[in-house]
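Example record

Each entry pairs one chain with its bound ligand, S-adenosylmethionine.
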Amino acid sequence: MVNQKIAIQLLCESGDAEKFITLCENEGLKHDSSSSFGLIQTEFNGQVRLELRKLSDPKLGAVFVDFISGKMAHRRKFGGGRGEAIAKAVGIKKDYLPNVIDATAGLGRDAFVLAAIGCQIKLVERHPVVRLLLQDGLQRAYADQEIGEMMKKNMILLPINHITELDPIANACDVVYLDPMYPHKIKSALVKKEMQLFQQLIGSDADADNFLEPALKLAQKRVIVKRPDYAPFIAKKAPHFSRETKNHRFDVYLTSL
Ligand SMILES: C[S@@+](CC[C@H](N)C(=O)[O-])C[C@H]1O[C@@H](n2cnc3c(N)ncnc32)[C@H](O)[C@@H]1O
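Structure tokens for the complex follow.
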């Protein structure tokens, strides 16, 4: 859990500055003009949105959450849908759409793939900057004419940091999804610039092995762990089976045997 205040430049280029600062402070951020990272409230295409930027390295671009247009919209409209490896890993069938807790929500991209298919997903994210970016993307998506209703029904960010804060009985779900940060191979030129920035801010989730047990307690059917293809099993525990993609594996731990 991130307990201490995170120092970052809080910059407002558009919208209500006071509200923005209060929002950030409530999430545990504090303005630090010497930080090389900035969380910026800005405007894009007539909408106010939050962006993370590395101010000392603008070439890295901005990280923001956009479920309405761009890559996520393209994937929703033209992606594999139920044929996607993640959909198969969580066990989606013709008449079965599991409800899922995404315990390491990040920017919500994997969760969105499942939500667009029709799964109901509760999101948990512990890093305050990431949580703010995600909440911002969700708010804009909720207000969208095309996907708003689906998003309000299927994707909700829980006001907690970690799934251990959830009572396993009251919050039982079919599937818990885990995708902790994993160190990239040194020569990974393929890591996109925006993700490099994300990784520099968050680092790797060195405590990831501890996530498996609470996830297994919560999930009625299965826990899915997304890993790079070169990474060992989480907590050194072999899954019941894995689904492989080009660069990743989805390790599947069944809980209802
Ligand atoms: C690789 S990213 C997830 C990316 C996400 N699957 C997506 O599609 O955007 C991992 C995220 O999990 C978060 N995280 C790591 N450990 C966590 C924990 N124990 N509880 C909540 N969030 C956690 C990190 O802060 C980071 O944002």
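The chain has a mean pLDDT of 92.
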